[in-house]
Amino acid sequence: MNLAHKLLAAAVAAVLSLSAFAGDRATPDEAKAMLVKAIALVKASGKDKAMLQFMDKQGGFIDRDLYVSVIDMTGKTTANGGNPRLVGKDNIKYQDADGKFIVKERVDIAKAKGRGTQEYRSVNPVTKEIETKLVFFEKMDELIVAVGSFKP
């Protein structure tokens, strides 16, 4: 195999691996759809049962880099499929990779508008890299249910 063929083969392999990686990422539309599904579950099954299902890897709410996170109006995490270590903790002062107080901001937006979106930088649980994330959330009584997707 000459050099041109080797370079072509390497380029094809790189493109295929990038497209395979892109398929491992959730889209904003998939995040919005999971949020609708999560809210429906809380309404149908109650918050306690829903929180357990959000944390269960087989519960239908953890898919690639997509997962549900739930906080209460004080910033305490009640479910987080991407980082279970946050559950039960007061995370109102939790900061993203750039020092942005994302939980406080989410609570403030939810109090003012009932729902919203956020963009911040966080560790992707699949790639383990710090990436930009777009999160959609909605207030339900004393809870804020959120789902987001990482930008490619």
Describe what is shown at a glance.
The chain has 152 residues and is an alpha+beta fold. 39% of the residues lie in helices and 27% in strands.
Notes on the structure:
Helices cover 39% and strands 27% of the residues. It has four helices and six strands. The chain has helices at 3-23, 28-45, 47-55, 102-113; strands at 62-63, 66-72, 77-80, 115-123, 130-140, 143-150. The chain is globular and about 35 Å long.
Features:
152 residues; 6 strands; single chain; alpha+beta; disordered N terminus; Beta-Lactamase; six-stranded antiparallel sheet
Low-confidence stretches: 2-22
Structural class by secondary-structure content: alpha+beta
CATH domain fold name: Beta-Lactamase
Task: Supply Rg.
Answer: 18 Å
Number of strands: 6
Mean pLDDT rating: 87
* Total count of domains: 1
- Give the C-level CATH assignment: Alpha Beta
What spatial form do the alpha-carbon principal axes imply?
Answer: globular
Q: Please give the count of helices.
A: 4
- One letter per element, helices H and strands E, the order comes to HHHEEEHEEE
Q: What separation lies between the terminal Cα atoms? A: 34 Å
- Biggest sheet descriptor: 6 strands, antiparallel
The CATH superfamily is known as PAS domain
**Approximate helicity band:** 25-40%
Strand content: 25-35%
CATH architecture: 2-Layer Sandwich
Furnish the topology, listing elements before pairings.
Blueprint (H helix, E strand, L loop, with lengths): L2 H21 L4 H18 L1 H9 L6 E2 L2 E7 L4 E4 L21 H12 L1 E9 L6 E11 L2 E8 L2
Antiparallel strand pairs: 1-2, 2-3, 2-6, 4-5, 5-6
Helix pairs in contact: 2-3
